[in-house]
Design a protein that fits this description.
Helix content: 40-55%
Structural class: alpha/beta
Number of strands: 10
CATH superfamily: Aldolase class I
Order of helices and strands: HHHEEEHHEHEHEHHHHHEHEHEHEH
Radius of gyration: 20 Å
Number of domains: 1
Largest sheet: 8 strands, parallel
Distance between the termini: 46 Å
């Protein structure tokens, strides 16, 4: 039986999660839209960036400590909002939030989480971030914002790239639902995941906790699927952000920016940070990788707004590459989900330790001791995406 100490890289967690998590939920996390070319490019383009090794430099005292929108962080990494996290592991969002708090990095709760805003607030002692999907029911969105404020959330992450849903073939083939429908194929697969089943039987949190019982007319799973299909707002535009910002009254982070022009609009609407993100390759297939889009966006907005990146980060070296190309922070999604599905809270803690260790040692090999001093000079080919 593997323990967290046996895990040496994110790939170890992925392999174990594939064994332990029911197929439909593992596939939900580990897939992209259509041909998955953008999903694959997020990882492969990061690997194209090569480090410049320096030697005989005093690297005895090193620091990864930084800040993201004014919040002190143990390293420039936050846990990204991920839907259905509580289906990777029972009470998954609670476990992830506790691990992030213990390590000293931000945790972001998704609108489409299984554990509710109130669940996370009850199981953590420090503020977390809340991610908002803008839906047609503006009263419900207003209530979500008010609930996030009541839970002492310290930032609102608004996802802009999911007005319509990109087709993910595996989800259609698996008949993705929460909880799984009792089809023969699902029952056979669940029979091979006894640990997951026992943990899920031990929790009452098995549906979308932020929505069921809160949204008008959504009291059961049957109405929920119809409601979500109808509610993602195709009319969302930059003008809508003003009332959200006013209702929220706190720090705003815009997620899903892949174009320099949109980055300028993010600055103009008064956001505190933007996230260069293609939704993990789950929306527009054939789009550029996040890392390749990053330099142009950094160039477009300069220091007017914090620029972060997510997509493809599987290691501390990937974090270092993003920082070298101008990101002030990064977010991890799948690395978090793999470690959670594999080993729960202990797995997430171990994953964060691994990322930090690899980031620290790689920075040292490049001749640096402070994450704030990292720039393109640590790369031998830092201009490949210009």
């Amino acid at each position: 039986m593997p323990t967290p100490s046996h895990m040496t890289c994110v790939e170890d967690f992925r392999v174990l999660a594939q064994r332990r998590v029911p197929r439909m939920f593992y596939d939900y996390a580990d897939s992209g839209s259509w041909t998955e070319s953008t999903y694959r490019a997020n990882e492969s383009d990061l690997q194209k960036l090569k480090f410049r090794q320096r030697v005989a430099v005093n690297i005895e005292k090193r620091s990864l400590r930084s800040s993201m929108i004014g919040q002190d962080v143990a390293m420039p990494v936050a846990i990204a909002p991920t839907g259905l996290t509580g289906m990777q592991r029972a009470d998954g969002e609670i476990l992830g939030a506790r691990a992030a708090e213990a390590f000293g990095i931000p945790f972001t709760l998704s609108t489409m989480s299984v554990c509710s805003i109130e669940d996370i607030a009850a199981h953590t002692s420090k503020p977390f971030w809340f991610q908002l999907y803008v839906m047609r029911d503006r009263d419900f969105i207003g209530q979500l914002i008010d609930r996030a404020k009541a839970a002492r959330c310290s930032a609102l992450v608004i996802t802009l790239d999911l007005q319509v849903l990109g087709q993910r073939h595996k989800d259609l083939k698996n008949g993705l639902s929460t909880p799984p429908k009792p089809t023969l194929a699902n029952l056979i697969n669940l029979a091979t995941k006894p640990q997951w089943c026992m943990q899920m039987l031990g929790t009452k949190r098995r549906t979308f906790g932020n929505i069921v019982g809160h949204a008008k007319g959504v009291d059961d799973l049957g109405s929920l699927s119809t409601w979500t299909a109808e509610q993602f707002d195709t009319t969302l535009n930059w003008n809508d952000l003003a009332w959200i910002k006013n209702r929220w009254g706190g720090k705003i982070i815009l997620k899903g920016i892949m174009d320099a022009q949109d980055a300028r609009l993010a600055v103009e609407c008064g956001a505190d940070a933007l996230i260069v993100s293609n939704h993990g390759g789950r929306q527009l297939d054939g789009a550029p990788s996040s890392i390749s889009a990053l330099p142009g966006i950094v160039h477009a907005v300069g220091k007017e707004i914090e620029v972060w990146m997510d997509g493809g980060i599987r290691s501390g070296q990937d974090v270092l590459r993003a920082i070298a190309l101008g990101a002030r922070g990064t977010m991890i999604g799948r690395a978090f989900l793999y470690s959670l599905g594999a080993m729960g809270e202990a797995g997430v803690r171990r994953c964060l330790q691994m990322i930090a260790n690899e980031l620290d040692i790689s920075m040292a090999f490049c001749g640096h001791t402070d994450i704030h001093h990292i720039d393109r000079s640590i790369l031998v080919n830092g201009d490949i995406f210009d």
